[in-house]
Automatic annotation (TrEMBL):
Any GO MF annotation of the entry: copper ion binding
Cytochrome oxidase subunit II copper A binding domain ranges (all copies): 532-631
Organism the protein comes from: Marinobacter adhaerens
Annotated GO CC locations: membrane; periplasmic space
Lineage: Bacteria, Pseudomonadati, Pseudomonadota, Gammaproteobacteria, Pseudomonadales
Functional description taken from the UniProt entry: Nitrous-oxide reductase is part of a bacterial respiratory system which is activated under anaerobic conditions in the presence of nitrate or nitrous oxide.
Any coiled-coil regions, as ranges: none
Encoding gene (name): nosZ
Name recorded for this polypeptide: Nitrous-oxide reductase
Residue spans crossing the bilayer: 24-44
Binding site for Cu cation A2: C611, W613, C615, H619
Location of region: COX2-like: 535-631
Binding-site residues, Cu cation Z1: H320, H375
Keyword field: Calcium, Copper, Membrane, Metal-binding, Oxidoreductase, Periplasm, Signal, Transmembrane, Transmembrane helix
Binding site for Cu cation Z4: H487
Length: 631
């Protein structure tokens, strides 16, 4: 009987003479940038893994019928969606389509979703990285979630009461919105987001030079989703986070060189973390001290060089993640090409902006953690957990001890290193970005799963691992394969999210349908009527399981038909669907919801429509006919 898994075999075969597979991949991932270090800690066997999981203080078992303690919100990366998970069971509860198309709910097909995406939206894709929930006084208030789209330079908002996206804003004059975080205090008035790439201004093909190129830090008004202001910066922008005073935000820059090639981005020994004085920027904008760019009327201030709005704190080359500790004391820039994290004291930033101290005087520690530090998260007990991409490990370290070490004291700040599988990007501890960081669970989003699951062809799932951090020792307790590409996630206590079980009839989500019905003299909750308006036909129908209020309607070939379905069922979970066969038309109609979809009746004849969300024993019988007369 084979006692070791493939991985152990690999280690045994290569452990003495060279690199194991997991080391090899990490080393080649950044070849030339950093040399491969010596062989790391022993890899766990399946048996020792199971034993460690059993010892874990936190129980990951959620019995059938029991509810999870935490909501997890996973970004969907290139899939453009958001996934709602239960933690610790790691069960997927729901998907929220955002920048993608979704046939199940009709996202991208229905008029309600087009009201959000834009009726002329040409982008069926997105690259969603950073989901974050609105806060009041540094605590999740459960109202909204915001997420970036790197692919098409957008920011979306999700209403958490119904878990649907209700606003999407395209950020003007920039490319690739990447890092995104929220103002934490006094509340989330601003959504901060970084545009990653520098572009020429104007970007109209008249000039491709780097001299005329820059990028901007952006703030959106969280309620209106309008861009409140933009700040021109030196270099580029990667990740960001905000502080707990409401005054500062900080972002990492890996391309201070403004290079277009890989080697060029690594030329400087140091790049920087740029700190934004949000208070001063908002003040300048209020006083009208700004300009605008192109045909956008968004206020733009210049934060390049020595400006009142920014400070560029040098940190080792090509930093990546930027994380605020939940005690509000530090911004931490993660080294990536440097094995270190740079700890910046937020309480020194006032002096820095008043020019009383030097840039590097704000740095209070720079602990060496291992190869490829990308993101750091916190347990609320003074410990930080940093992903080491190249080492395939999590480094647990104590922030205050790292500061003592930086000051010359002989203390060991490293608490533990734990192997993860493999090449972790983000990690996230329960409630870590809020004052409520509770140090119970740590999710690690590993970019490679290799041989940990049944093979599914060349494209592998990722591996989301759950680690119990409630005790002194981190313990890996769960592997969860995930499809492309949960980039980041957040964990929220279940009592912090309050959802509706059925829609209320005045929900703004279908306000435009109600407005049209009013114009047509229709009561959505009662009427089953067809309104003709030139070659536009509006079909209003109700649905009560297992019947549509309209089981037959007649239109003419070439008519533009809009079907409005109002679900009169009041019982939780009785969702209907509407699918017009052979028309690419399909949508969700949840209890007390109105959904609408527009299509052209381009072929004469009989066309059946049916309910495609299972709602009743007679669900198959829930159908009707569209009769299309020849033109
Ligand atoms: S970034 S793996 Cu898009 Cu959050 Cu670091
Ligand atoms: Cu209504 Cu199925
Ligand atoms: Ca650089």
């Amino acid at each position: 009987m084979k006692k070791t898994n493939e991985l152990d075999k690999d280690v045994q075969e290569t452990g003495d003479s060279g690199l194991s597979r997991r080391r090899f991949l990490g080393a080649t991932a950044l070849a030339g940038a950093v040399g491969a270090a010596g062989f790391g800690g022993a890899v766990m066997t399946r048996e020792s893994f199971a034993a460690a999981a059993k010892e874990a203080q936190n129980n990951i078992t959620v019995e059938p019928g029991e509810l999870d303690e935490y909501y997890g919100f996973w970004s969907g990366g290139q899939s453009g969606e958001i996934r709602v998970m239960g933690v610790p069971s790691m069960r997927e509860l729901m998907r929220i389509p955002v920048f993608n198309l979704d046939g199940a709910t009709g996202w991208g097909l229905t008029n309600e979703s087009k009201d959000v995406l834009g009726h002329d939206n040409k982008f069926p894709n997105g690259d969603a990285h950073h989901p974050h929930i609105s806060m009041t006084d540094g605590r999740y208030d459960g109202k909204y979630m915001f997420i970036n789209d790197k692919a098409n330079s957008r920011v979306a908002r999700i209403r958490l009461d119904i878990m649907k996206c209700d606003k999407i804003t395209t950020i003007p004059n920039v490319q690739a919105i990447h890092g995104l975080r929220l103002q934490k205090v006094p509340k989330t008035n601003y959504v901060f987001c970084n545009a990653e790439y520098v572009i020429p201004h104007p970007n109209d093909g008249s000039d491709f030079s780097m001299e005329s190129s820059f990028t901007m830090f952006n703030a959106l008004d969280a309620e209106t989703m309008e861009v409140a202001w933009q700040v021109i910066v030196d270099g580029n922008l990667d990740n960001t986070d905000a502080d707990f005073t409401g005054k500062y935000a900080a972002s990492t820059c890996y391309n201070s060189e403004k290079a277009t090639d890989l080697a060029g981005t690594m030329r400087n020994d140091r790049d920087w973390a740029v700190v934004f004085n949000v208070e001063r920027i908002a003040e300048a904008v209020k006083n009208g001290d700004y300009k605008t760019l192109g045909d956008s009327d968004v206020p733009v201030v210049d934060g390049r060089g020595k400006s009142p709005f920014t400070r560029y704190i040098p940190v080792p080359k090509n930093p990546h993640g930027l994380n605020t500790s939940p005690d509000g004391k530090y911004f931490i820039a993660n080294g990536k090409l440097s094995p270190t994290c740079t700890v910046i004291a937020i309480d020194r930033l006032d002096d820095l902006f008043d020019d009383k101290i030097e840039l590097r005087d704000t740095v209070v520690a720079e602990p060496e953690l291992g190869l490829g530090p990308l993101h750091t998260t916190f347990d609320g007990r003074g410990n930080a957990y940093t992903t080491l991409f190249i080492d395939s490990q999590i480094a647990k370290w104590n922030v205050e001890d790292a500061i003592k070490h930086y000051n010359g004291e002989d203390v060991n700040y490293l608490r533990q290193k734990l192997d993860v599988h493999y090449q972790p990007g983000h990690n996230h501890a329960s409630l870590t970005e809020t004052r409520d960081a509770d140090g119970k669970w740590l999710v690690v989003l590993s970019k490679f799963s290799k041989d940990r699951f049944l093979p599914v062809g060349p494209l592998h799932p990722e591996n989301d691992q759950l680690i119990d951090i409630s005790g002194d020792e981190m313990k890996l307790v769960h592997d969860g394969p995930a499809f492309a590409e949960p980039h980041d996630c957040i964990l929220v206590r279940r009592d912090q999210i309050k959802t509706k079980k059925v829609y209320t009839r005045d929900d703004p989500y279908f306000a435009s349908a109600r407005a049209q019905a009013e114009e047509d003299g229709i009561t959505l909750e009662a009427d089953n009527k067809v309104i003709r308006d030139g070659n536009k036909v509006r079909v209003y129908m109700t649905s009560v399981a297992p019947q549509f209020g309209t089981t037959e309607f007649k239109v003419k070939q070439g008519d533009e038909v809009t079907v409005y379905v109002t679900n009169l069922d009041t019982i939780e979970d009785v969702t209907h669907g509407f699918c017009m066969v052979n028309h690419g038309v399909q949508m969700e109609v949840s209890p007390q919801q109105t959904s609408s979809v527009t299509f052209v009746a381009d072929r004469p004849g009989v066309h059946w429509y049916y309910c495609n969300w299972f709602c009743h024993a007679l669900h198959m019988e829930m159908r009707g006919r569209m009769l299309v007369e020849k033109a």
